[in-house]
Amino acid sequence: MAAAAPARARVTLSRPGVLFAAIGLAGLALPLVQFRANRIVAGEGASLPGALGGWGWIAAAALAAALLVGVPARTPARLRLALALGGVLVTVAALGASAGALTPPGDRIARVSPSAGFWLLGLAFALAVADALARIGLAFRQRWALLAGAVAVVALVLGSGLLDDVSVMREYQARRDVFAREAGRHLLLAFGSLGAALAVGLPLGIAIHQVPRLRAGVLGGLNIVQTIPSLALFGIMIPLFGWVAATVPGAAAAGVAGIGAFPALVALFLYSLLPVVSNMVVGLSAVPHGARDAAVGLGMTRAQVLAQVMIPLTLPVVLAAVRIVLVQNIGLAVIAGLIGGGGFGSFVFQGLNQTAMDLVLLGTLPTIALALVSGIALDLLVAQLDGRRGRGT
Amino acid sequence: MIEIEHLTRRYGDRTVVRDVSLTVGRGQIAALVGTSGSGKTTLLRMINRLVQPTAGRVLIDGTDTATVPAHLLRRRIGYAIQGHGLFPHRTVAQNIATVPRLLGWDAARIRARVDELLDLFQLPPVEFRDRLPHQLSGGQQQRVGVSRALAARPDLLLMDEPFGALDPVIRASAQADLRRIQRELGTTLVIVTHDIDEAMALGDRIGVMDQGLLLQYAPPRAILTDPATPFVARLIGTDQRPFHLLSLSRVADLATPGTADGPPVAPDASLRDALALCLWSGRGALPVQGGGVVTLEALRRAARPGGAGADP
Ligand SMILES: Nc1ncnc2c1ncn2[C@@H]1O[C@H](COP(=O)(O)OP(=O)(O)OP(=O)(O)O)[C@@H](O)[C@H]1O
Ligand SMILES: [Mg+2]
Predict the structure, then answer these.
(1) CA A169 to chain centre
(2) What pLDDT, in 10s, does the model give residues A19-40?
(3) How far from chain centre, in Å, is Cα A254?
(4) What would the pLDDT profile of A319-341 be if each residue is shown by its tens digit?
(5) Which of A143, A361, B133, B311 has its CA 20 to 30 Å from the CA of residue B48?
(6) 3 state DSSP class of A383
(7) Atom of ligand 1 nearest to the CA of B12
(8) Could you give the maximum distance between any two Cα atoms of chain B, in Å?
(9) pTM, whole model, 2 decimals?
């Protein structure tokens, strides 16, 4: 077929490929890292070759080549995936190496932080990974393996010391113990509020499905809660719980307090209720009428109909609610840092106070990673469940 | 035995079942026919109290069903719901095992019963046991729905258009199987159907409903030869009457001594089959296996009201 084609055969372009290449090449043109003599002063940018010399040129050329190979439409998806994953690794390695090269030996004050070039390259390759994965259409088991593999590689890279000279890791090294504690606190806030919302919301959803008169009132109330901005909610809760802790005997001992983790937990819990309750109600009303009718007709009691037919059939919708709430709460839990509730948010707000972006990143990057991993894992669970039951039965 | 006494059901000011009384004897089959929306399903569902009667009562073996806890009543009554109603999250085997599990049968007994029913309805257990309902065809789903109704060997069975989605071949064999099971176990069966042939083939008595009223409740022969109202005659279809009538009797009932040429007909074949064979082969008489003949003349007489076989 090549013989029949005209001499200047048109190469069909892959639109996403062009976009990723444009983003990535812009990233290569911009400084990869920023060097500052200390944490506060303004810095100067350094490109890949600027930081690493000859190796930098090689790395930049390799990255550019990887981006350009994705441009023609006929590049196979598996090659795209390999190149994109390779691109991510090279970009991260370049960051670590640049930081090592730019930092004067023994200097604990100088800061090398990722700059626009790094973020754009990272974005381009991450998008390319997602695009390639969507094209390949992996089986569930492979997707789980990939997720676990990605987490393992990140852990390995962080543990290897490759990035130890990068500013965010410098901030981390100075706060190892605090970081572990705040990470635990963040997980507690996100998962604790989710657990509480499920414990209260699922029975509440069942109740208002059984007693439709309650529906408008309960859902309306939760809707209003949902629209209160988080800062305003704290504004209400801080004095309220402060007063409760001071006046109700035993309340303070039970953990009630105006500031700290308690009001943060309560706020996250309240924000989680609406998705949980409304999804439960939607799930219950979507149960096929025939299935419910048959359950009653075959002699199940009310409780058996609920436990054996209705609730199992709401599982996919409930899991979807869990996904929404968990990802939402992992992000929202940052706010807890504002009122002394701990979590990654405490780094963010400390960083903002000191105008130390590296510290802000130390709070935001793990938050994003956590939300991403939870979101993907739950998406996989929901899709798997749907696949097993067949859609629309 | 089911005794239905003056059952009425109103929704708002619409009466969808109006003062219906009928009795189904132990081991008998009652087939309910009627136009869509005439109240068949509603009547059926008042028997297992899925619909609460506005007035009237239902006695099962002499006990007023209103005096028994509804869920215990329903476990004794097999119910095949219109449109199968399988549980989408449970496998075929789990669906069929629903009532036995509620009754606390042990696992081995349940498993044996499930396989027995699947075999009976031509769904090889190895292949079908662990499938989910969405992995079945419409006809297979219906057969699983019927198996589920039969699982705990109920004395009383309610079926709402159970074979609607089956092709004629499987439908005929499913009807024959149902009939056999029903005879073996002495099950009392109330079946709703749109198919007059099915009602004729299965029903000891046929109930004809229109706009909530039970117009006639009588043996098939009486429905054919002596319709209570013009509507009943129209529903049965006047063009098919002679053939329905013939299908109600067997060759053995009409055989007379004598001999005839050609391949013989089985004594338990229906007169309708015998007529078809006469017409197809151009013969005036057929030999009957085991002796005797059946003549075209006798068949012609039997196809008229008041003909042979009219008196049991
Ligand atoms: N829950 C209900 N509320 C109001 N009207 C109802 C209800 N259930 C049934 N009806 C009405 O009662 C009438 C009889 O319904 P039913 O289901 O008994 O008919 P059917 O004879 O089984 O019809 P089909 O052959 O189409 O299944 C219909 O007009 C229907 O609209
Ligand atoms: Mg009906």
Answers:
(1) 20
(2) 999 999 999 999 999 998 877 7
(3) 32
(4) 999 999 999 999 999 988 888 88
(5) B133
(6) helix
(7) 4
(8) 66
(9) 0.78
Q: In which residue are the tokens 């089956």 written?
A: B166
Burial of A2 (0-12, 13-18, 19+ CB in 10 A): exposed
CA B31 – CA B195 distance, rounded (Å):
10
DSSP letters of B49-60?
A: TSS--SEEEEEE
Please indicate whether residue B36, judged by its CB atom, sits closer than 6 Å to ligand 1. yes
Compute and round to an integer the Cα radius of gyration of chain B: 21
Residues A261 and A247: their CA atoms lie apart, in Å, by 19
What's the burial of B56, exposed, middle or buried (CB within 10 Å: 0-12/13-18/19+)? Answer: middle
Residues 292-331 of chain A with CB under 8 A from chain B are: 293-301, 304, 309, 312-313, 315
Angle at A251 between CA A250 and CA A255, to 5 degrees: 115
Q: A176-392: which CATH architecture?
A: Orthogonal Bundle (1.10)
What whole-number distance in Å separates Cα of residue A389 and Cα of residue B86? 13
Burial of A185 (0-12, 13-18, 19+ CB in 10 A): buried
Distance from CA of B85 to the nearest CA of A (A): 4
CB contact residues (below 8 A), chain A span 259-298, against chain B: 288, 290-291, 293-298
Alpha-carbon distance of A268 to A191, in angstroms, equals 10
Calculate how close chain B gets to A296, using CA atoms only, in Å. Answer: 7
Angle subtended at Cα A316 by Cα A312 and Cα A317, rounded to the nearest 5 degrees: 105
Percent of chain B with pLDDT over 90: 64
Strand pairing category for A111-114 and B29-34: unpaired
> What is the reported pLDDT for A393?
37
Task: Report whether B199 contacts B207 (CB < 8 A).
Answer: no
- Whether B9 has a pLDDT exceeding 80, the answer reads yes
Nearest one of B123, B32, B138, B35 to B85, comparing CA atoms: B138
Helix H, strand E, coil C: the string for B175-237 is HHHHHHHHHHHCCEEEEECCCHHHHHHHCCEEEEEECCEEEEEECHHHHHHCCCCHHHHHHHC
Give the burial class of B302: count Cβ atoms within 10 A of its Cβ; 0-12 exposed, 13-18 middle, 19 or more buried: buried
pLDDT of res. A273? 92
B40 lines ligand 1 (CB under 6 A): yes
Are the CB atoms for A72 and A13 separated by under 8 Å? yes
B2 by DSSP, 3-state: which?
strand
Q: Which residues of B have a CB under 8 Å from any CB of A?
A: 45, 48, 50, 71-76, 79, 81, 83-89, 98-99, 102, 132-135, 145, 148
Chain A residue closest to B141 (CA)?
Answer: A393
The pLDDT tens digits for B73-125 are 999 999 999 888 999 999 999 999 999 999 999 999 999 999 999 998 889 99
Mean pLDDT of the residues in chain B: 91
Identity of the residue in B102, B132, B135 whose CB atom sits nearest the CB atom of A300: B102
**Any idea where the domains of chain A sit in the sequence?**
2-166, 176-392
Residue type at A280 in one-letter notation = M
Residue B41 Cβ contacting ligand 1 at under 6 Å: yes
Distance separating alpha carbons of residues A165 and A171, to the nearest angstrom: 10
The SS3 assignment for A118 reads: helix
H or E element in which residue B115 lies:
helix B107-120
Please state whether beta strands B293-295 and B285-287 pair in parallel, antiparallel, or not at all (unpaired): antiparallel
* C-alpha–C-alpha distance, residues A257 and A251, integer Å: 8
Nearest in space to A273 (alpha carbons), one of A172, A196, A366: A196
A388 to chain B: which residues are within 8 Å by CB? 132
